[in-house]
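Can't attach files on this board, so I'm pasting raw text. These are the components:
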Amino acid sequence: MRVTAEAKAETRQRILETARQLFAASGYEASTTREIADAVGIAHGTLFNYFPNKEAVLATLVADATAGLHIDFDRRSPEEGSFEEELFAFVAAGLRKLKPWRKQLSVLLETVLNPLTTAAADGSESMRLWHLETVARLAKHHGLGDLPPVSLQLYWTLYIGLLLFWSQDGSPRQEDTLALLDSSLAMFTGWLQSEKPSPSPNKKGRV
Amino acid sequence: MPPTIEELMRALPDEEPREPATLGEPLPVASRRQVPVGRWRRLRLLSTLQAKIGAAYLFYWVRGWFKKAEHRERLLAETHWQTAASLFDSMSYLRGAVMKVGQTLANFPDIVPQAFVETLERLHYEAPPMHWALLREMVHNELGDDPENVFASFDKQAFAAASLGQVHGARLKTGEEVAVKIQYPGIARTIREDFRNFFLFLLPGRLSKDWEYTKNQFDDLRRRLDQETDYVVEAATLAKVRPLFRDDEGIVIPRVYPQYSTTRILTMERLGGVHLDAYLARNPSQEERNEFARKMIRAWYRMFYAGRLLYSDLHPGNFLFMEDGRLGVIDFGFMLPFDDELWELMRLMDRAFTTGRREDRIAAVKAWSWISDDPAEADFLRLTEEFADWEMRARYCGGPFDFGDEADFRQGIDLFSEMLRKRYNKSRACTPVIARQHMGWRALLYRLKARVEIRPLAEEEVKAAGWDRSDYA
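---
Top answer:
Structure tokens for the assembled complex are below.
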């Protein structure tokens, strides 16, 4: 029997939803791919047709959680904040979306959240791309021109560091993460401004 | 003659001071540690300008104590001070600690140069604010939603800086105008960590005979500052203090809104009015100033005798002079509740305050500081008794007391400085807090140039303590 694309998409979605529930109930470490497959009602091996491993399931859930963030952020009512402040608001909005996955983020450190990874599977690469596109667009809007790759890499490294700090943050309501975000962005924007980038050659503002 | 800012800046230690031999390795390492808390550019601003001026002034002051000392002793003191100043400079709890030091020093306008007072005044009220995005996350974290959803309206601009945060105006959905005090994220932990580091600085003194007293006093300060970071404690204090005052007394303690308050956010009724400098700038009459002074004194006595609480944060930023003549008292973070042991000592003090007899003062200070009849402690006893007399005479003499008398005020400062210089620190753990509040309230009344009779006020208020005072005569 041929499995239609529609059925495939539906199975994939069921795997993700079941995994989300299992991770929430039993924790990421305690949940196995076999349990996920059993709960979905598919053979254990079938699950691997959709995701290469449990970590990829988690990476997709994390990427999906923040998928619409950049669109929401672009649609928000405009505020007269500085680049640093807008960037803070953008990252903070992402943290709100990622909150259910906070403690699991460190699992992704060696792979999709590795700052040197550029070609991860299952949507995490797109998460990186749209995140950095939004940062670049904000920088341009604030007159900082087109951010060079080194600036974006520096930013991504800081961002990943922040996520990892957050995943382990034991302070009340993770307030230390807010302080770290504030410090990191002040450092990043201070560095950007000291770099004094030349004006963008692209007047149409492509990002 | 007071030093100029330039002289103060020159008095500062170098950027990279040599590390004194008296300190172990962990301290310099710890002092250079970057603490990822706070908004570093703001903190750097504080640490490189206001804090340096503050540190320089203290350095200048401390140097003055050693004018007549042996060269070796002077050098040792300077080395210690340079280390303290450089360590202080590198600390990230500056927002809290510098403002605390600043608030205390700003009470001495005739001792510190005017430019310094102005700098510290800016520290009181004009510290650079948290930006809106950070603030919104703090409110969301603490109250579960964005400020624009929690409140009917919320001012994005802070109207005041608190020592550990900032204060915003807002309106509740039920219509009340409120002041929302929001703490900087992570400041509580950073204060705790920096206190630990600062304690390491004190370690070279551990062999001195009075080390235990120093250590206990330091611990007491640390505990109180730590408590100040918990706004739930402050809300409870406000709820306890507010019912102590009647509406017709003209003393206003803001109402707390517990449903909008957490450990990091305190939502209170917003009081109008201006701070001391703005009030004095209107050239109020002597009687108007006296009336506000009486309210300050009454508020302080009421909390003391009826509430068994010492209001220790006596600096100009904590009082509001309201248009209708009422006095607003705000900020109840730094309070000293009297336990039974302290309360009994306060009863002894009351006897001395009331009778004015030297033997009663001596008995009180001996009990307070465990001073024996050993001749080695004779000078300690003399000085402590003289300082107590300076503290008490405004009350026991009766009649209007001129708190604006510069000579009298300076005598208190000189006695206090002499005790510090002679390192007479054998005393109760809370002594620095009590000394701070006493100097604070005398300085406030001095700046008001108040001429008031405090004995009847004290006699009226002390009744709430329920002490048997029949044997005072």
